[in-house]
Design a protein that fits this description.
Elements lengths: L3 H17 L12 H14 L4 H8 L6 H9 L8 H8 L2 H13 L1 H11 L3 H12 L9 E2 H10 L4 H17 L8 E2 L12 H7 L15 H14 L13 H5 L7 H14 L3
Antiparallel strand pairs: 1-2
Organism: Bradyrhizobium icense
GO molecular function, one term: peptidoglycan lytic transglycosylase activity
Pfam family, one: SLT_2
């Protein structure tokens, strides 16, 4: 017997099927939210996402006003001096645990460095900053709802429509079940906070289980982080301080100069520099 949630999902899937029978067209932001959801369902099917995944992901979806409110508050996040910012992000406790992580995962990090050319201290610094090495807050927001809300908002609809389709593809590929598609206020996922499009583009199955799992698999998390930097032009053995080519390569991770300086500072502290 179907639960009420399953029955609703089945009904929604049937409605999606009817909508998808009409020609696909780009989803137009603003206006009626349910109309936008239906248009995104068409876009998803055109992108190769199954009706089953679409129906499950979009069933009962509503806007999240908290997401929009948070987004509008974030404009001044980096309006601090480097000294002010780094003092809040890189303290003795985080450094000490980072050094423990370098030792605990030394073999794994060595294999990652050999393959991708990114030194362990850079990878561990990012890991520490983004989620306290997987032990901190990696987000509690349902990613599909977050991204649908942001895509419906007209300021950056194209960006977030793309992220929404990428999130659906993560489920479609079997990398994460929908219940694990939980993230931060812009849809970032996992222990180093990948946007879904980056998850698809740079994710690496480094533990060899056939899935890219950036929530639970430390090998996948660290290797994928290194792969992003490698593909972006990070060169093995070269310096990574401000003004270097590697510093510019880290723009794909975060465009804010103050954040990239913090990564480099943290990395140096981890290895005693």
């Amino acid at each position: 017997m179907l639960s009420s949630r399953s029955a609703f999902a089945a009904l929604f899937c049937a409605l999606v099927s009817l909508v998808l029978a009409s020609p696909s067209h780009a989803a137009r932001c603003g206006g009626d939210f349910n109309t936008f959801v239906s248009a995104m369902a068409q876009e998803a099917q055109a992108a190769g996402v199954s009706q089953a995944v679409i129906g499950q992901a979009f069933a009962g979806i509503t806007q999240d006003p908290a997401v929009l409110a948070f987004d509008r508050r974030q404009r001044g996040t980096f309006n601090k001096t480097f000294e002010q910012y780094v003092s809040t992000r890189v303290g003795p406790g985080r450094i000490n645990i980072g050094r423990q992580m370098l030792q605990r995962h030394a073999s794994l990090l060595a294999r990652i460095e050999q393959k991708f050319g990114v030194p362990p201290q850079i990878i561990v610094a990012i890991w520490g900053l983004e989620s306290d090495y997987g032990k901190g807050d990696i987000g509690k927001m349902p990613v599909i709802r977050t991204l649908m809300t942001m895509a419906h908002d007209c300021r950056r609809t194209e960006l977030f429509q793309g992220e929404l389709l990428a999130a659906l593809k993560i489920v479609q590929r079997g990398d994460l079940p929908l219940r694990d598609l939980i993230g931060a206020f812009a849809g970032e996922l996992g222990q180093t906070q990948f946007l879904p499009s980056s998850y698809i583009k740079y994710g690496v199955d480094f533990d060899g289980n056939g899935h890219v799992d950036l929530r639970h698999s430390v090998p996948d998390v660290l290797a994928s982080t290194a792969n992003l930097l490698h593909v972006s032009g990070f060169k093995a053995g070269a310096p990574y301080g401000e003004g270097t080519a590697n510093f510019e390569a880290m723009r794909e991770w975060n465009r804010a100069t103050i954040y990239r300086k913090t990564i480099g500072y943290f990395a140096d502290r981890l290895v005693g520099r």
